[in-house]
């Protein structure tokens, strides 16, 4: 799968680990920054990832910040993006099954790498269920 990944300074270390894990599992990953743990503004990187996914350059996006909330809010401002905040594997699967999420956001300060990996496994394995969920997803599009 072709994936864009980004973070802020709080998510930087976890992003590096997640990126390596994704590549080890056969995914093509574009790290859209930042490239150090110096303080940055999370909306800048959330926008980069979300816009690239919305343009169809990447199949999925992954974002990390301290709480996961900031990148989720920022990404959801981009038309065509359905960014979901995932804090466990079950939520990640539901984000795909019920919301057809195309960007998954993680709270780097409140989760661990193993939970993120398990969440990504579930997200990649899940499929959008359509049906009543498709009707609801249509209602959230601007």
UniProtKB/TrEMBL annotation:
Assigned keywords, A-Z: Isomerase
InterPro entries cross-referenced by the UniProt entry: RpiB, RpiB_LacA_LacB, RpiB_LacA_LacB_sf
An individual GO BP term: D-allose catabolic process
Domain of life: Bacteria
Molecular function, one GO term: ribose-5-phosphate isomerase activity
Pfam families cross-referenced by the UniProt entry: LacAB_rpiB (PF02502)
Coiled-coil intervals, chain numbering: none
Binding site for D-ribulose 5-phosphate: 8-9, 66-70, 99, 109, 132, 136
EC number per UniProt: 5.3.1.6
Active site per database record: 65 (proton acceptor), 98 (proton donor)
Similarity comment: Belongs to the LacAB/RpiB family.
Protein name as it appears in the record: Ribose 5-phosphate isomerase B
Species of origin: Prosthecochloris vibrioformis (Chlorobium vibrioforme)
Lineage summary: Bacteria, Pseudomonadati, Chlorobiota, Chlorobiia, Chlorobiales
């Amino acid at each position: 799968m072709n994936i864009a990944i980004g973070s802020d300074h709080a998510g930087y270390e976890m992003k590096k680990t997640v990126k390596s894990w994704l590549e080890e599992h056969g995914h093509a990953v574009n790290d859209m920054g930042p490239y150090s743990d110096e303080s940055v503004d999370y909306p800048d990187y959330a926008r980069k990832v979300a816009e690239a996914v919305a343009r169809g350059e990447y199949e999925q996006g992954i974002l990390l910040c301290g709480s996961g909330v900031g990148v989720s809010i920022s990404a959801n401002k981009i038309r065509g993006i359905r960014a979901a905040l995932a804090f466990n594997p079950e939520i990640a699967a539901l984000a795909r099954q019920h919301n057809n999420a195309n960007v998954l956001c993680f709270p780097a300060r409140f989760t661990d790498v193993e939970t993120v990996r398990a969440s990504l496994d579930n997200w990649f394995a899940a499929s959008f269920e359509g049906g009543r969920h498709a009707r609801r997803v249509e209602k959230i599009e601007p």
